[in-house]
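Forgive a beginner's question, but would it be possible to get a protein, spelled out as residues, together with the matching structure tokens, please?
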Amino acid sequence: GAYGQLPGRDFNPLDLLLLLRTVQIRISFRVKRPDQAPGVSNQKRNAVTQSGFGFLTGSAQHQRCSIVGTNGADVIHALGGNDFVRGRGGDDVICGGDGNDLIAGNEDNDTIDGEGGRDRALYGGSTPVNANLAAGTAIGQGNDDLIAIEDLSGSSGADTLRGNAGPNRLWGFGGEDTLIGLGGNDILTGGPGPDALNGGPGNDFCNGSVGLGDTAVNCETTQFVP
């Protein structure tokens, strides 16, 4: 593997090029304290620390990368492979690149661009989210812009997840969720809690539970467990 520090103008960016041909690589980044001198490591294992962190590039190879940003405003490019990217705090810009990526912006106002492949935006935690792939927005855990995202996972709260004209997969997880597929052949899965599933136009598949009080409309195929 190799990494290089590139000269910056208004900040000190770090461009990490992952060249190891391994099954999985995990990178964790932490912001330095303001009183630390430039280039001083906080000795966190398997981590790289950089004051004024700005830019990260993942691998163009086909391995899976797990990339975790800082609590500052990061720019993360995952490039190739089926990657997991978590932005953490700050107003991040996250680009998935090629491959089927899982992207969690976490707190604050993020721009999430899945780019190539089939990508899913993840909204964990307890704060409900109102996400709309047709509008390209997700409100609740900050105000996110969603670009080229096909699938959504909700939180443990009462989420509203809407798809777009393409084939989408929506997971409500916990809480009393509303899942709306809109156009395309969609797959809706409610999860724990009494969920309302609406496939919309297209040939849609809805997963739910009778015992949990789920309802399904405009679903050509349903699979409800007791």
The two ends are 51 Å apart (CA to CA).
